[in-house]
């Protein structure tokens, strides 16, 4: 048994685009364009009068924008599915349209096959988002990256943190100098700087502070 054709209304404020969409869609088997609307208000009126299966809706239209028209149509006739076809690709427009009840969001310039597949999928109840929009949606809804932990003792330089780590392992200045391939006097100067920056009086206090921060663990 043949399926009934998908009945479509095209809503766009540019007559040439409406005509082009009508020609494109009517050349596809199983699709019938039953009306055209040039404003958001007219789209609502045709939705009520014709009760189409799908309205292909532009967002930027006079009298009432496509998002507001979508909201009113879906509230009045929940069975009508809205497929947005627009030049607007910013996140605010995409998610506002979906929240308003749109079942699909494509950018103008979509090819014949992409558009006809979207019409069929939306008619079947699927949510369709164009490839470029889908990638941004995945990025938008992706979990945030884990917070970057601040290094222990940010007042210290990288070299001073290396010295403090070795200090917390119980190494003396001479051993620290050998481990880091620096002069013993340079190692002593680093240790003195560490004491001053951490406001500790001696080696023992510095070791306690370092180990509390997780430094000084012996490699396994």
Structure description:
With 220 residues, the chain is α/β, with parallel strands linked by helices. It folds into 2 domains: 136 residues, Rossmann fold (3-Layer(aba) Sandwich), CATH 3.40.50; 55 residues, Arc Repressor Mutant, subunit A, CATH 1.10.10. Helices cover 50% and strands 13% of the residues. The chain has 10 helices and 6 strands, in the order βαβαβαβαβαβααααα. It has a 6-stranded parallel sheet, with helices on both faces. Helix 5 links the parallel strand 5 and strand 6. The model has no long low-confidence stretch (mean pLDDT 87).
Supply the CATH architecture of the largest domain. 3-Layer(aba) Sandwich
How many structural domains does the protein architecture include?
2
Fourth-level CATH superfamily of the largest domain: Response regulator
Distance between the termini: 72 Å
Any idea of the CATH topology of the largest domain?
Rossmann fold
Principal-axis shape equals rod-shaped
- Overall average residue pLDDT: 87
State the major sheet. 6 strands, parallel
How much helical structure, as a percent, in the residues?
A: 40-55%
Q: Which CATH class of the largest domain applies here?
A: Alpha Beta
% residues in beta strands: 5-15%
Rounded to an integer in angstroms, the radius of gyration calculated over CA atoms is: 33 Å
Report low-confidence residues grouped into runs of 5 or more: none
Number of helices: 10
User: Helix and strand succession?
Assistant: EHEHEHEHEHEHHHHH
How many E strands? Answer: 6
Strand order of the biggest β-sheet: 2-1-3-4-5-6
């Amino acid at each position: 048994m043949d399926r009934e054709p998908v009945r479509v209304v095209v809503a766009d404020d540019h007559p040439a685009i409406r005509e082009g969409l009508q020609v494109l869609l009517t050349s596809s088997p199983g699709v019938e364009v039953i009306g055209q609307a040039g404003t958001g208000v007219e789209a609502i009126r045709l939705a009520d009068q014709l009760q189409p299966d799908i309205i292909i809706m532009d967002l930027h239209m006079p009298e009432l924008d496509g998002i507001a028209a979508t909201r009113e149509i879906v509230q009045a006739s929940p069975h009508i599915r809205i497929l947005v076809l627009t030049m607007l690709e910013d996140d605010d427009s995409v998610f506002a349209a979906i929240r308003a009840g749109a079942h699909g969001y494509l950018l103008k310039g979509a090819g014949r096959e992409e558009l006809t597949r979207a019409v069929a999928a939306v008619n079947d109840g699927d949510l369709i988002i164009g490839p470029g929009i889908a990638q941004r949606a995945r990025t938008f809804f992706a979990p945030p990256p884990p917070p970057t932990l601040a290094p222990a003792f940010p007042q210290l330089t990288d070299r001073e943190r290396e010295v403090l780590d070795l200090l917390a392992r119980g190494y003396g200045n001479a051993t620290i100098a050998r481990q880091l391939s620096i002069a013993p006097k340079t190692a002593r100067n680093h240790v003195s700087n560490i004491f001053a920056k951490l406001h500790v009086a001696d080696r023992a206090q510095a070791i306690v502070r370092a180990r509390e921060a997780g430094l000084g663990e012996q490699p396994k």
